[in-house]
Design brief:
Strand order of the largest sheet: 1-3-2
Number of domains: 2
CATH architecture of the largest domain: Orthogonal Bundle
Structural class: mainly alpha
CATH class of the largest domain: Mainly Alpha
CATH topology of the largest domain: Neurolysin, domain 3
Low-confidence stretches: none
Mean pLDDT: 95
Distance between the termini: 65 Å
Strand content: under 5%
Shape: globular
Number of strands: 3
Helix content: 55-70%
Length: 504
């Protein structure tokens, strides 16, 4: 109707996103700083904030403003801030309007309880201490599916959950990509298993936490972390929260007998943080000030972790920094030695420590278990057994305990079912993007070897990050690469070449 009506809608959206930002801050604090006994009250406060945000956002007043602002917003042009905001708010409103506020609050409460139960059960390596919380999260998830499936026109129960993380994507799309990845990956895993060696011993030893922390900050600051807009802290499971474009919180973990977790968790989470740090500031305090989807987010984190951090050029710059941090362990180690060590391939139990080749199998087995749970084919009580069987099938490993098996990830404890496939989809997208980036920035490897990463940050900012979530995921793919479908072949080609290089 008018600019005034749109401004009224915008004020309401700002209010909702301020509440979401406060929830994010409390969630970050819970995982990074909060004493354990604060969990019960924290859970109630998170539930209250989630309920308030949901109630305001799904109110009839919001719906009326959306209806009245439609003509004005969409009259500004498809790529305008107004039209983009209206589209995503309308889509989210229609979905969330169907969810009762009481259910939204209970899901937040159950996620908080699930996180605490997971933390306790993982420490004890005992799934039975987590089973009740997991069952409650699954029960509430199935209630959401029941409410949303027909209204969304979803063909598969999993489509409902996947849409929360990957708008518009179907389980059938995931199946197509994952079936191809499985087909191509398993022979490479077998080849590596036959030719494995002890090269990874270089990154095992004694690495004091304080020295790892200094090294993590050194690397983070070199690639783009700044003290005035970022924090780097510690959590049991590394994660990123962006409270605002200039308030980015990332965490890592330090394992004193293994260097890889801190190095690559830091770079991985930096990739997530950079995405939302480089969103156009005009999108602040709106749902547009975030990544287009979790697949797009994971493409950025996995790009920095693997395509940058596990590349030879990076280690030309980074090796002297590692030697300075740990002179006794690395005095006579070359950049090429380190590159081979951090690219050790072969089956392992822990997803976040997995190499690029086997990582996707870790994701595929989780995705298949989620599908089975939704279909009632695997009961929560049977998850450890089902998990262990899939690890044996895909990775050839026996799982010694629940902490190194079904309890290693926080996602199910936090109620996040439908999230896992986006990790491997992010790998696929990262490889597709890297082909374009490498052709447009031919001096990139020389830049990395000198410790210069600004050209990559700039390309990502201009082509991807600045848009935030203005575009649906496949619309953004079309805008950046000129295609509308994921293609596993660039990732398969990259992995095949890497295996031949390192193990041929």
């Amino acid at each position: 109707m008018s600019q005034e009506t749109f401004d009224q809608l915008l004020r309401r959206i700002h209010q909702v996103n301020d509440l979401i930002g406060a929830t994010s801050l409390l969630g970050w604090d819970q995982q990074a700083l909060m004493p354990q006994r604060g969990a019960a009250v924290r859970g109630e406060r998170l539930a209250t904030l989630a309920g308030l945000a949901h109630s305001i956002f799904t109110s009839d007043e919001t719906g009326e403003l959306l209806d009245k602002a439609s003509d004005f917003a969409n009259g500004q042009g498809d790529d305008s801030f107004e039209a983009s905001l209206w589209r995503i708010v309308k889509r989210n409103y229609d979905k969330q309007k169907r969810i009762p506020t009481e259910l939204a609050e209970e899901r937040e409460r159950a996620a908080n309880a699930g996180y605490e139960a997971w933390h306790t059960a993982r420490a004890a390596a005992d799934f039975s201490q987590f089973e009740a919380a997991m069952s409650r999260n699954l029960e509430l998830t199935l209630e959401v599916v029941r409410i949303q499936k027909d209204a969304m026109g979803a063909e598969d129960d999993y489509d409902v959950l996947l849409d929360d993380y990957e708008p518009g994507m179907k389980a059938s799309d995931v199946d197509r990509v994952f079936d191809r990845l499985k087909e191509a990956t398993r022979p490479l895993v077998q080849l590596v298993a036959e030719r494995g060696d002890d090269r990874e011993q270089l990154v095992h030893g004694h690495f004091p936490k304080a020295a790892q922390e200094d090294l993590s900050f050194t690397i983070a600051r070199q690639i783009g972390f700044t003290d005035d807009a970022w924090r780097l802290d510690v959590s049991p499971h590394p994660f990123t929260s962006s409270m605002a474009i200039n308030d980015i919180r990332i965490t890592t973990k330090y394992v004193e007998d293994f260097l890889n977790p801190s190095l690559f968790a830091t770079m991985h989470e930096f990739g997530h943080g950079l995405y939302e740090h480089q969103v156009a500031e005009s999108l602040e305090r709106t749902p547009l000030a975030r990544g287009a989807s979790m697949m797009w987010h994971e493409s950025q984190s996995r790009m920095w972790e693997n395509l940058v951090g596990r590349g030879r050029p990076f280690w030309t710059w980074a090796m002297p920094k590692v030697q300075e941090a740990f002179p006794d362990q690395f005095a006579n180690v070359t950049a090429d030695d380190m590159h081979r060590a951090v690219n050790t391939m072969g089956p392992s139990l822990i997803r976040i420590e997995a190499d690029e080749l086997t990582y996707n199998l870790h994701i595929i087995l989780r995705y298949e278990l989620e599908r089975a749970m939704l279909a009632g084919e695997v009961a929560v009580s049977d998850l450890p057994e089902a998990w262990n069987a899939k690890v044996k099938d895909y990775l050839g490993l026996d799982v010694p305990n629940d902490a190194e098996g079904v309890l290693q990830d926080v996602h199910w404890g936090s109620g996040s079912i439908g999230y896992f496939p986006t990790y491997a989809l992010g790998n696929v997208l990262a490889a597709m993007l890297w082909s374009r980036i490498s052709s447009e920035l031919p001096n990139l490897t020389d830049d990395f070897a000198r410790g210069e990463f600004a050209s990559l940050r700039t390309w990502l900012g201009e082509n991807i990050h600045q848009h935030g979530s203005k575009y649906m995921p496949m619309d953004l793919l079309d805008k950046v690469l000129g295609v509308r479908q994921l293609d596993a072949e660039p990732l398969i080609d990259y992995l095949t070449a890497k295996v031949n290089d390192l193990y041929g």
